[in-house]
Amino acid sequence: MEKTVVRSDAYRILLVDDEPYMLDTIFQTLERNTPHLLDSATNGLEALDKYQNALSSSQPYDLMIVDLKMPHMDGETLIDEIRKTNQDIAFIILTGHGNLLDAYKLLEKYHISDFLNKPLEHPTALLFSVKNTLEKQRLELQNRRYLKELEQTKDLLEIRVKERTDELAQRNEELRLITDNIPALIAYVDQDHVYRFVNNAYQKTVHLSPREVEGKHVQDVLGKKPYEMVKPYVDQALAGQHVEYEISMPYEDGVVRYMHAVYAPHMYNGNVLGFFALITDITERKKAEEERKRLITAVEQSHEAITITDVEGRIQYANPAFEKISGFSREESLGKKMNIIKSDQHEASFYKEMWTQITSGHAWHGRITNQRKDGKRFVGEVTISPIFDQSGKMVNFVGIQRDITAEIHLEEQLHQSQKMQALGTLAGGIAHDFNNILGTIQGFTELLHIKQLEESKKESYLETIQQSIDRATDLVRQILTFSRTSEQRLVPLHIPPIVREAIKMMRAVIPTNIEICENINEDCFPIAANKTQIQQVIINLCTNAYHAMQGEGGKLEVILKQVSSEECPFFHNPQHNNGTGTLYLGVCDTGIGISPQNLEKVFDPFFTTKEVDEGTGLGLSVVHGIVESHQGMINVESQLEKGTTFHIYFPVIETVEVPTSATASGKEGKEHIVIVDDEPKLIMFYEIALKRLGYQVTAFNDSNMALERIKNQPDQFDIVFTDQNMPGMTGAQLSQRILELRNDLPIILATGHSDSISEKEAKLLQIPYFLMKPVKISTLTELIRQIFN
Amino acid sequence: MKRILVIEDDDKYRYFLKEALTNAGYEVTTTSDGKNSIELHKQKSYDLVITDIFMPEKEGFEIILEFKSHALDVKIIAISGGGIFGDGNPDTVLNMAKDMGADLILSKPIRLPELLGAVEELLTVDGS
User: Fold this and answer.
1) Total tally of structural domains belonging to chain A
2) Which residues of B touch A441 (CB under 8 A)?
3) Domain boundary residue among A237, A254, A286?
């Protein structure tokens, strides 16, 4: 611009003319009247030379005043040469009158600004022409510059627009890429409830591609009902509010999904143009939440104390039941170790074993006597299970415990009260037996006062008194066994003698119109049992059976046998099925039966169909309790007017050591024994002793009568025990006669030292067994068992 | 000699009764059950039957009723040490026996003079 300002004052002008006068005139005129910088040349060549010099020294000429007719290079050639490369320089032509037409032609051809006629008539015309020409040239140059700038600006704008367009397209692409990869529904909805943009996630939910959704009304996409449900929120968003809500949406495909939605209104100049929607499917989260809530509720409301600890036993969670049972509030227990409820009731080894088990990844179950905050003890039935994380690492222990203190107390009470009842039931029978014993003792004591009583009689009476005292002692022992309150341990026991003994006790109580049938198999495996409790089971069941048959009478059958585990309907549980088998105890009556509605309640405590005085209703519940404590199973089968059968199954144990008791000495048997002796006292002694051991005894004090009886029924007897020295027929003679009748009948011959037969002789007579008198009961029974086993 | 039939299932008590009564001069037959008592009586025509009440084979009540139903001329003494009725008291049982027709009732344990006195009383009243 500065250059332009300078130029407005002084332009560079080259004068070209071969006529010195002319050149001089113009030079002087311009020099006198203008500030322009002047130069001159006398021909075309020189002018061209000067033009190029000026151009290369960056001081180009603005105007050339050129004569047309010159030597060496005329004006037209010069102009032509310059115009080839330069459109900016202005030309004024000097011409004679005759060349006017040529001058006009050149004017057009070379864009000449003006021409002047020679000779110059007035300097003013020159000055005027130069001024106009330069002004015109200035304007032209300026115009051309403007145009150029305009052109450049236009190009620039076009480039910018293209760049922006590309950028937007890129952004759009990115936006779609982003939204399509977000696991949520993203949409833009306009004022008319029409989708303007949706992401790809819509395809999954509404089963339409974004292209299909965009441009459609919300109702057409979602369906009428869902649309009505969301419409209030859409209206709020379009009223310019930020909306956030959760909704259970029944979609067109029939799937109900729980959705979380956020609507953000799109504001422009205070108007709402539409809104952006971000909708998340929270169905799974909601389900998990509900599941969690349910679990929490269950745990929180559980009556069992539930604690979660870390692997070091520090409490991380405790439910309200724990607070209640332990007395420690949740705040007090959190972070503490479980030993806050530890009592001094267990050895350190007990906890050590428990800890070893759970830390090795196994659950522990058992009873623990714990201590409350207030120091009171309670018994908890506890299960502690380890919890593993996904990588299999043990991370927690969960403990569940139930306070069974009251239950145990009740159990003990029930047990005790049941014992009292059993005792009461037996009281009558005991009184009966006891009075017989007392009567015998009293009677014989009084008979002993008789004077002149034979010695043998005295001996017999005293013997009988002694036996009665033994019997009384035994009876007392039985009563004591029943009334003992201490907790009974389970030990391996052989059950048949125990059952038989219990039945024997019942015999005294049960009226004679009820037939008692014992079906006891001796070959039973032992079970882990408590003798008193097993007897209690028999007595309770037999008492019930007897009550059911009262009046009419009937048959009571007690069955004891070994069955295979497969035969036991209950022992599918592996806990009960050790493969060894099962001991079956059945008590069966032909009484009035139990109605189906009562059948399911028979084991409930205090359930009874009897009159107030007749029973407490505890009997069967105690039976049930005892059977359970023996790891057994019980069920009942009954038909009205037909009878009832209780089936009991006990898991048997394989053990070498079965403690024997006085009654389980291995001397018992049930064989039918014939005893022949001429001494009534001895007969009575053996008969009582053998019967007590379960044998059936038929005794004779006359060998002929004995032979007669065996002759009539040779197969009724299993063994003969005979004295040798008898009046009439000796034992040896009797034996020979018996062997003639039945040569397989075992015979035991008892002889005294002075007797006429030795063992050797007895063998010769084919009498297989031989005992020296006096024969002890234990010796006799051992031999009998040896023979039959 | 007066004949007495003793029905008692308890061996030792039966033995005692036999000894006591034999020693007192009676002819005594004993049996452990009362199943054939009527037949035995028909054979031997006893003057007195002493029967226990609770026995496994046949109850004394039944025996008393049988004798009474046959209108047999025989005295009956019922003896008992109690049993399964009510409180287990022998008196309760024996009173029932008396109601059924027993002439005398004795509660075990029985003193020897009491037994012999009762037997003598019944057999003397009879006048034979």
Assistant:
1) 6
2) 109
3) A286
Given CB atoms, is B92 within the 8 Å cutoff of chain A? Answer: no
CA pair distance A665, A663, nearest whole angstrom: 6
pLDDT of residue A648: 92
The residues, ordered by sequence, that sit 6+ positions from A478 with a Cβ below 8 Å of its Cβ are A505
End-to-end CA distance of chain A: 144
Q: Across the strands, what pairs with A217?
A: A194
* Token reading at A230: 């969301």
The candidate with the shortest Cα–Cα distance to A663, out of A530, A478, A427, A422, is A478
DSSP class of A488: P
Phi/psi-derived region of residue A766, left when phi > 0, alpha when psi is between -120 and 50, beta in every other case = left
Q: Rounded CA gap, A584 and A561, in Å?
A: 5
Q: Is residue A665 part of a domain?
A: no
Q: Are residues A511 and A641 in the same domain?
A: yes
Question: pLDDT tens for residues B26-55?
Answer: 999 999 888 888 888 989 889 999 999 878
Question: Which of A442, A464, A508 lies nearest to residue B109, judging by beta carbons?
Answer: A442
Whether residue A439 is contained in a domain is answered as yes
Q: A611 and A509: one domain?
A: yes
Residues A505 and A635 reside in one and the same domain: yes
Closest by Cα among A613, A572, A606 to A414: A606
Residues 26-85 of B with CB under 8 A from A: 54-59, 80-85
Strand-pair partners of A557: A517, A588
Q: How many CA atoms lie within 13 A of A609 on its CB side?
A: 14
Give the 3-state secondary structure of A721-750.
EEECCCCCCCHHHHHHHHHHHCCCCCEEEE
Give CA torsion, residues A713, A714, A720, A725, to 10 deg. Answer: 80
Structure tokens at B116: 């012999």
Where do the domains of chain B lie, and which CATH numbers do they carry?
3-125 (3.40.50.2300)
Q: Do residue A369 and residue A430 come from a single domain?
A: no
* Strongest mean pLDDT among A189-198, A404-413, A466-475: A189-198
Q: State how far the Cα of A204 lies from the Cα of A474, in Å rounded to an integer.
A: 88
Break chain B down into helix, strand, coil percent, rounded to 5.
45, 20, 35
Which residues 6+ apart lie within 8 Å of A662 measured at CB? none
In Å, how far is A778's CA from the nearest CA of chain B? 21
Task: Indicate the residue type of A737.
Answer: R
pLDDT at A563: 84
Q: Do A603 and A528 fall within a single domain?
A: yes
Residues A44 and A87 in one domain: yes
The nearest CA of chain B is from the CA of A558 a distance in Å of 17
Whether B54 sits inside 8 A of A432 (CB atoms) is: yes
d(CA A511, CA A81): 161
Q: Choose one of A607, A632, A659: the last residue of a domain.
A: A659
- Per the DSSP assignment, residues forming a β-bridge with A245 are A261
- Backbone φ and ψ for A470, nearest 5 degrees, come out as -60, -40
* Contact status of B111 with chain A (Cβ, < 8 Å): yes
- Paired tokens of A650: 């006990």
Q: Tell me the H-state helices in A34-122.
A: 44-56, 75-83, 100-109
Question: Does this model's pTM top 0.80?
Answer: no
pLDDT bracket for residue A1 (50, 70, 90): very low
